[in-house]
Amino acid sequence: MIRVILPFHLRTLARLDGDVDLEVATPATQRSVLDALEARFPMLRGTIRDHGTLKRRPFIRFFACQKDLSLDPPDTPLPEAVANGAEPFHVVGAIAGG
Length: 98
What we know:
With 98 residues, this protein is α+β, with helices and mostly antiparallel strands. It has one domain: Beta-grasp domain (Ubiquitin-like (UB roll), Roll). The chain is 22% helix and 19% strand. The radius of gyration is 13 Å and the shape is globular.
């Protein structure tokens, strides 16, 4: 099981009170986690990744094991600690402005 932590606005949209535990095939990748997340919560489609290209939205970041994984290719295996459920996969909404 992979534990996914979503930002408040996405938890609200998906009507969640906490973290999400997802069953993901090995090797666990960003793509497989996001595919499983969107399959379980269809209302999140298009909020984290673009509908057509499936690329990460500009103001969404991915973190795990104290590392920014946002620019990693989507099929790169996630760290072992995330794959075995010891550490969560964070989806973070970035803030910009001036």
